[in-house]
Amino acid sequence: MSASSLSLHPLLDNGIKPGVPNFPGGTLSCHCPTNKASITLTSDVLHNHACGCSKCWKPKGAFFSVVGVVPSTNLSVTSNKEKLAIIDKNAPIQRYACKECGVHLFGRIEVDHPFKGLDFVHVELSPEGGREGWQAPQFAGFVSSLIGQGLDPDLVPGVRERLRELGIESYDALSPGLMDAIATFNAKKEGIVFRASI
Questions:
Q1: Quick one: how far is CA 179 from the chain centroid?
Q2: Integer angstrom CA distances of residue 185 from 35, 112, 143, 171, 174
Q3: What DSSP character marks residue 140?
Q4: I need a labelling partner for 139 at 20 to 30 A (CA). Which of 13, 58, 73, 159 fits?
Q5: For all residues of the chain together, what is the average pLDDT?
Q6: Within 10 A of 158 (CB to CB), how many other CB atoms are there?
Q7: Strand, coil or helix: what is 3?
Q8: One of 30, 32, 51, 101 is an active-site residue; which one?
Q9: How far is 10 from 64, CA to CA, in rounded Å?
């Protein structure tokens, strides 16, 4: 098997489709054939990215999830809320999944955290499969985490090369901008004073 034969994710495998400026959002639904649990977003996502961690929901056979964030105020549960349950109540991101089909509809942070106020969502759950209008994946994060989920380490360089060919950079955490935001949040929390030079 080669890295080029792996299914990274449906939103990546066939080329990345660019988003539409000022996209107004839409409805995301679970995979149940009837009585779907649904959420409605009143804006586009931000920081949409491929994620190789073991916590994010992935479509069957994919190595990555594709996950973006929206302000919590821009997300509402619009149908069958009773079907949703938190996967792991001890995790910082409270991921709400459908109790019947297992799809994660959104993740919310309720604890003190750099990303509190942002909800994590998967645009592929929109009726057109996330290919129409939504922000395209911007980068790939936690790529080395694929090894811990059983991917042959020899294939990881090829996965990174495929991602570069698609026009997205790969990291073993989040993008530098998001890592800076986390570090800034933690530094302010610790009362560190910022200086122009050391």
A1: 15
A2: 40, 10, 24, 20, 15
A3: E
A4: 73
A5: 92
A6: 15
A7: helix
A8: 51
A9: 9
Alpha-carbon radius of gyration of the chain: 17
Q: Would you state the pLDDT for residue 14? A: 86
Determine what percent of the chain is predicted with pLDDT higher than 90. Answer: 75
Instruction: Choose between 98 and 5: higher pLDDT.
Output: 98
Position 91: which residue type? Answer: A
> Which contiguous run of DSSP H or E holds residue 70?
strand 65-71
| Two structure tokens written together for 169 | 């950079």
Active site residue 30: no
Q: What is the mean pLDDT of residues 103-121?
A: 94
Token pair recorded at residue 180: 């800076």
Measured distance CA(123)–CA(129) in Å, rounded: 7
Place of tokens 């549960």: 77
Asked if 56 is an active-site residue, the reply is: yes
Please pick, among 30, 53, 98, 101, the residue that the annotation labels catalytic.
53
pLDDT computed for residue 182 by the predictor: 87
Say whether pLDDT at 3 is over 70.
no
Strands 118-121 and 93-98, sheet pairing: unpaired
Report yes or no: 81 and 97 within 8 Å, Cβ to Cβ. Answer: no
- State mean pLDDT over 5-22: 90
Alpha carbons 109 and 113: distance in angstroms, whole number: 7
Q: Is-catalytic flag, 51?
A: yes
**Which residue among the candidates 30, 32, 56, 101 is catalytic per the annotation?**
56
